[in-house]
Structures are given as C-alpha cells and as structure tokens.
Design goal:
CATH superfamily of the largest domain: nicotinate phosphoribosyltransferase
Largest sheet: 7 strands, parallel
Strand content: 5-15%
Number of domains: 2
Organism: Ramlibacter pallidus
Catalytic activity: 5-phospho-alpha-D-ribose 1-diphosphate + nicotinate + ATP + H2O = nicotinate beta-D-ribonucleotide + ADP + phosphate + diphosphate
Protein name: Nicotinate phosphoribosyltransferase
Keywords: Glycosyltransferase, Ligase, Phosphoprotein, Pyridine nucleotide biosynthesis, Transferase
CATH topology of the largest domain: nicotinate phosphoribosyltransferase
Number of helices: 17
InterPro entries: N/Namide_PRibTrfase (IPR041525), NAPRTase_N (IPR040727), Nic_PRibTrfase (IPR006406), Nic_PRibTrfase-Fam (IPR007229), Nicotinate_pribotase-like_C (IPR036068)
Structural class: alpha/beta
Shape: globular
Radius of gyration: 20 Å
CATH class of the largest domain: Alpha Beta
C-alpha cells in the first residue's frame, strides 16, 4: 500500500500550540521538556501494532516546513509577532527528539528536548495515532454513520436556535483535532457546520481549516503552558501567577481566556485576583462539574464587583450538543458563553473513540503535574511531587 501521510501541513494543529509557543520562544528558550503519550482506555486492538506506521509518519512529519502562504496567514493574526514568524520560517521538527516503541500491547511515544522544539509534536502525534487506528475499520460505514449523526446534531441546534434568545448568543466551536476520526472527516464536519449553521458555529481550533474556510481560529492556553512554570525556578506557590503575568505581558489584551484547572478551580481563583480578573476576558472549563465551576466563576466575579456580562465562560470538557445547550440555558442570562466540542463532533461515527493524550511530564529535569477537578484527569509521573503540589495548594 502506498504511503499516505496523515499530516500534510504544519497548520493542521490547534491554535493554542502557536499561542503558547510564542511566549515560550520569547522568554523560555532554554527550557528542556519531556512529553509522553498515554492511552486512557482499552482500544479495540493493541496500539503497539501501529508502531511501524507511527515511525514512518514521524519520519514524514520531520520533513515538513511552513510554506510561504501558511506563514503569511499566521503573520496576519494580530497577536502573532514578526520574530515568531521568522522562527517558524526556519523551523523543522527534529527526529532525534521523538521516539516510539512498544511495551507489550502498549504504544509508547516520548518527545524529549528543548521545549520550543518538542512542544509542537503533541497534536500531530495524537491525530496520527487516531487516524492510523481508525483506518483499520470500515471507513465507508463509519462516514455514513457520521453524516447521519452530524445531520441529527444540526437539526437539534437549528431547533434550539429557533427558540427565543437569552441575554447572550449561543456560540460553539470545533475543538476536535486531537481525537478526530481522520483529517478528511474533520474537514467535512467543519465545512458542513460553517455552511449550514453560521449563526451558531463560530470557529475551529484547527488553524488550517480556519484559514481555508475563512472562519475564526479559536484557542489561547493549555495545561502545558501553566505546568511549565512548575519547573522554571519560581516559588511553586506562585507558578500560576507567574504564568498568567507572562501571558498578559506577551499579549497585552489579546487571547484573554485563562485555563483554570491545572491545580483545580478553587486554587486557581485564589490566584486570580482583581488584577487578573480585570485583564482576562474570561475562563475556560476543562474538568469537573461544569455547573458548579460556572457558579464559582460568577461568584468570584461578583465578589470582585466585576460585571459578569462583560466576561466569557468557555466550556470544553467532553461536550456534546445537549450538554452545551443545557449549560447555555443555565448561564446565558448572566455571562457570555462559548462551547468547544471535540470528540463528539469529529469522532462520532459509531466507533469507540480512543482516549489518548500526550502531556508534559517534566520541565528542566523537574516533574510537573496537573491536579484536575476530575480525578481521572489528574496527571503526574512522580507521586512525591504530586503530594507536595497538593499540600502547597491545599487540594485534598
């Protein structure tokens, strides 16, 4: 069978990889990092069977570079700075910084090296493993089922949008690069939504699709950005404040949605004082009870005497259309909202999706960890450091 590359453009990734990459290039070029691939559920067949194909795809990925038209698009985003574009002009992934191997039935992948050279591997690795995995199933049947389910989702959104609007509009986005059924299927889904539901569908985290379809690229920061500061020499108790302050200095008012669950919402809000609450446009939910989280956010803004109608809450944890609509009905008369739907948009084809991640586990030789508001999403490779992090932030 001829080689069929999964990744054909370096724009085929999440916007937040670029928006985190830029401040790290500007301020943390010396940081060394380790990222590891993890599968959280039981696949239909052992992922170790994909090893040879994964290696071939990684070889191909490391031959790609940013094309002139891609650089021109990035340069046209007002928050992307010229020196970052110049860096991307000469950037290539280095094969020596990533390796894959099998341990029994498990597929292991690790990227290790300068963070500004290895952080970009994450989304490409996840999209690659997903597509290689699902190529072994009946593609025609999966796409037919996917189209049927997508049509049902669109009918549900249309019916909902016909209802009387609340104080703020219903807006949802595609957040589905990392766990998509495949590259072509994500393009079909996003193209269909942009054409059929322009009043509700407002963008995609996929930079390539946003460019090609003329829609808004969506994204700010992920957990790796905040976790990196656990290994940068700042006092551990201050790592969130240091990360948020660097973001403010880098973007000067752009990209103002902060991620809250690196050490849990309660610990985040203790650091998210009046200064940050005024400077950031809103918050993103990615674990735990979304209603409880949203109520905590609104109560925090109320305590600080900030008008929540001027802020935005973005929900992105395991959403589907019914959950997004329910959250909208609960909150839309009090705050602006956005809903990032991932797997349920780009991998709802009648097959069981893989629950895979590739997470930062070390920065500068020090362990880093995430204390999620959902216990199953807590991620750490060093139990001693995890216990210390819990103690410092008073997380039980």
């Amino acid at each position: 069978m001829p080689f069929d590359p999964v990744i054909q453009s370096l724009l085929d990734t999440d916007l937040y990889k670029f928006t985190m990459w830029q401040p790290m290039l500007h301020r943390q070029t010396q940081t060394q990092a380790v990222y590891r691939f993890i599968c959280r559920n039981a696949p239909h067949y052992p992922l170790a069977e994909l090893l040879q194909e994964v290696d071939a795809q990684l070889d191909h990925l490391c031959t790609l570079c940013f094309r002139r038209d891609e650089l021109d698009y990035l340069a046209g985003l007002r928050f992307i700075k010229p020196d970052f574009v110049d860096f991307l002009r000469i950037f290539r992934f280095q094969r020596e910084f990533i390796r894959a191997w099998a341990e029994g039935d498990a597929l292991c992948i690790e990227a290790r090296g300068p963070q500004v050279h290895v952080m970009g591997f994450e989304i490409f690795v996840l999209a690659t493993v997903n597509e290689l995995y699902f190529r072994r199933f009946d593609g025609e049947a999966a796409r037919a089922e996917g189209r049927r389910r997508l049509a049902a989702k669109m009918d549900q959104v249309r019916a909902f949008l016909a209802e009387p609007a609340l104080a703020h509009p219903f807006e949802f986005f595609d957040f589905g690069v990392r766990r998509r059924y495949g590259r072509a299927w994500q393009r079909e889904v996003v193209t269909t939504l942009a054409r059929e539901l322009p009043q509700g569908f407002k963008g995609s985290s996929n930079v390539l699709l946003a460019r090609d379809l003329g829609i808004t690229p969506i994204g700010t920061m992920g957990h790796e950005y905040l976790q990196t500061f656990q290994g940068l020499g700042v006092r551990l108790r201050d790592f969130q404040r240091a990360a948020l302050e660097q973001w403010v200095q880098e973007y000067r008012g752009d990209l103002g949605i902060a991620l809250t669950d690196t050490v849990g919402m309660d610990a985040f809000l203790r650091d998210f004082d009046l200064y940050f609450a005024k400077l950031f446009d809103g918050l993103r939910h990615d674990s735990g009870d979304p209603v409880a989280w949203g109520e905590k956010a609104l109560a925090h803004y109320a305590r600080l005497r900030i008008d929540a109608h001027a802020k935005r809450l973005v929900f992105s944890d395991g959403l589907d259309v019914p959950k997004a609509i329910a959250l909208y009905r609960h909150f839309a008369d009090r705050v602006q909202l956005g809903f990032g739907i991932g797997t349920n948009l780009t991998n709802d084809v009648g097959l069981v999706p893989l629950n895979i991640v590739m997470k930062l586990v070390e920065a500068n030789g020090q362990p880093v960890a995430k204390l999620s508001d959902a216990p199953g999403k807590t991620l750490a490779t060093d139990p001693t450091f995890l216990a210390y992090l819990r103690q410092v932030f008073e997380v039980t």
